[in-house]
Amino acid sequence: MLTGYSPAYSGLMNNVPTSLQEMKGHPWPAGTESYVNVRIKQQYIQSYSKSFGIEPLIKYSTRVEKLRKVGSKWEVRSTTLIREGPRRGQKVRSVEEFDGVVVASGHYHAANIPDIPGLKEWKSSWPDQIYHSKSYRNPDELKGQTVLIIGAGVSSTDIARESHHGAKRIYQSSRGGKFDTPLDWIPPNTERVTGIANFEIPSEGQGNPGNITLTDDRVLAGVDKVIIATGYLFTLPFLVDLHDDLATPENASDTVLVTDGSQIHNLHKDIFYIPDPTLAFVGIPFYTATFTLFEYQAIAVAAVFAGLAQTPSEADMRAEYVEKTKVRGYGRSFHSLMNAQVEYVNSLVEWVNSQAETTGGAKIQGHSPEWIEESKLIHPKFLKFLETRINGHRVGDDLLPVAVQYI
Q1: Which candidate, 297, 407, 299, places its Cα nearest to that of 343?
Q2: Which of the ends of the chain has fewer CB neighbours closer than 10 A, N or C?
Q3: What DSSP designation does 13 have?
Q4: pLDDT tens for residues 204-237?
Q5: In the chain, what is the straight-line distance between the N-terminal and C-terminal CA atoms, in Å?
Q6: How far is C-alpha 7 from the geometric centre of its chain's CA atoms?
Q7: What is the rounded distance in angstroms from the CA atom of residue 317 to the CA atom of residue 309?
Q8: Which long-range CB contacts under 8 A does 329-336 form with residues at least 24 apart?
Q9: Which CATH topology does 113-230 take?
Q10: What is the pTM of this model?
């Protein structure tokens, strides 16, 4: 699916060991290190699709424009950009029908931009000096500059660590979020400051950015670049009929999928759309060992779509969902599997296996004892990695926040 810039910057590395992200029947190449560049992970995924014959089924350079239910079928409208041959640059539009649809488009597309007084005016006056971390690519763009990074999570700290040798000075603005990285993880020329009260609105013809006032009344002057590292929002532009952007999460209807972008609503086990389980999602949860967790979700979807398992009744799925909202509340934490991936996977395994004997489906195994034990060592292993691999390498937020100790 075409979604504009990829959030995978050039030096991005995983922060969950590759051994915990190995998919069934497809080991990592011999000698693969625990922490690798994003290109190595890309090669692993591509080799997986080729090994299992999936490659011919994939449409690259394709954007899904609209997805809707028409009768008993899902109608998918898409646009494919031709990249080779005499028709290079042309667009081909398609309309196809399917019995079931799996949405696996991730949640790192729509940048979350904070509503800070003066920020919009700054962006209008100096468009090249303010951008979201999604557009960050390498540390060269920050050489010799004073940089303000808004946010203190993994991406923010990642950018600071990679660029601190070249940047003149780095400020990291934090509102004290619970997923802020520890102070001792930021480099020497980076200072963590409070949240931002406002950006001084520029006067007409002003050649350089003005002052930035923090919530503790401190004023930052001479900032050359502002990088907004405040995360992403859920959005499903191809399912616009299931968006209600004016509703709050608490007031979401029983059919809506997206409200303010902080979560996806009305999913059973973060997978099946409760009103119609022929629409399924893979990859919604946060704070997981992504590849292995999503593989178990995919197994559950495949079992249902193949008729080897059935979802509970709509009433039962609704009751479980409502109970989850009471326990988790609303927003980003609703999809958190922090310290809960094993329990979640076990619930999927038990559900699929409970029906395997009557449907003829194959039983599956949950995470092995070895996998579980290794997952408990993530935090100390990652700290050791940071100590030995600071210069020239980066660690990103595509997997597990480094402040989280266990899966």
Answers
A1: 407
A2: N
A3: B
A4: 666 667 799 999 999 999 999 999 999 999 999 9
A5: 29
A6: 9
A7: 15
A8: 330/249, 330/250, 330/262, 330/263, 331/249, 331/262, 331/263, 332/262, 332/263, 332/286, 334/262, 334/263, 335/263, 335/264, 335/270, 335/284, 335/285, 335/286, 336/285, 336/286, 336/287
A9: FAD/NAD(P)-binding domain (3.50.50)
A10: 0.87
